[in-house]
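A quick aside before the break. I want you to see a complete sequence-to-structure record at least once, exactly as it would be stored in a machine-readable document. Don't worry about memorizing anything.
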Amino acid sequence: MPSDDPGYWFPAKRYGWGWGPPCTWQGWLIFILYFALIIAGIPLVQRVYGDVRFILFVTIATVVLVGICWLTGEPPRWRWGKDEH
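That is the input. The structure line, written in tokens, reads:
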């Protein structure tokens, strides 16, 4: 669901809490970098340091992604369909 405000990188989901797919090139870049980091972490972190550190690596990367979504996305709140403004 595209946002009315072009300043947001991540629009709010229509149903539930959180953000949907990115709506700007900056958002897509962050999203692609996140997945590339996770994929690169398999041989670089998991195989070298083991599963526990890989899980920690993925957790930290996900917290950073959520932080970026929080700062650059629409304010999160529970939504249930179309807004009634």
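Two observations worth writing down. The chain has a mean pLDDT of 89. The two ends are 16 Å apart (CA to CA). We'll return to this after the break.
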